[in-house]
Amino acid sequence: MATQFKMAAMGHTMETGRVVEWHISEGESIDEGQLLISIETDKTVVDVNSPVSGVLLKTVGQVDAEYDVGDVLAWIGDAGETVPDQPVEPDSKKRSVAAGPRVTPVAQRLADRHGINADAVQGTGPDGRVTKEDVQRAIDDGTAPAKAEDTSVPAGEVVPLSGIRRITAERLSANWGVAPHVSEGIEVDFSQFESYRVEHEADWLEKWGTPLGPNDLILSATAQTLKDHPDLNTGFVDGAICRYNEVNLGVAID
């Protein structure tokens, strides 16, 4: 019986994911653990491997479309095995990103590395989008148009935000409006932190599957400090100071 490949939750807050690229085509064989698909969450682009071995019988998830967690994206099974019909527009809220860029992010990166004008490449993806395969084909055929040197100085350019950048911009902008920001730099003796980290590193790795780093200790100490000093754990909401009952930390990585 064919195995359903579904949109998995790759984070506690993830509700939807966008299909960036299929790395295997319908009808091709795939091994368990082999790279199958790239999915964009609200935080990053994740490469997802196949959970089983077999043949990619059918792909339902379309490139540059968003799907809810739990939606079926593909079926994997034995060659010649039949799969159920899947409506083109699933009931779950599939959202086509038709207004997004004409070139997929992976294709654009490949084009930039080779100095190619991806916008001039003939696209074979949904709605004529240019895929990585289209760019690679143009490179192999020698028909890839080079980027024209831009000698003009534009007054400005509107660049659509991807899901990751959009969410980051919205949350950081909201944070600036709610919590006054101040910076303070001091020198501290980190030797006790480092001793603790080394002592508990093995247990932490066994329990959580990830190394215990300095940031983990700093965030833990920050959370405890906010508990001990509730006047610091506040925000400016509707013209008044709101003292929060919970401690929630956000980390933005550049």
From TrEMBL:
Keywords: Acyltransferase, Lipoyl, Transferase. GO terms for molecular function: acetyltransferase activity; lipoic acid binding. The keyword GTP-binding does not apply. Residues 2-77 form the Lipoyl-binding domain. Residues 81-101 are annotated as: Disordered. Residues 102-139 form the Peripheral subunit-binding (PSBD) domain. Its cofactor is (R)-lipoate. Gene3D superfamilies: 2.40.50.100, Chloramphenicol acetyltransferase-like domain, E3-binding domain. The keyword Transmembrane does not apply. GO terms for cellular component: cytoplasm. It holds the Pfam family E3_binding. PROSITE patterns: BIOTINYL_LIPOYL, LIPOYL, PSBD. Belongs to the 2-oxoacid dehydrogenase family. This is Dihydrolipoamide acetyltransferase component of pyruvate dehydrogenase complex. It comes from marine metagenome.
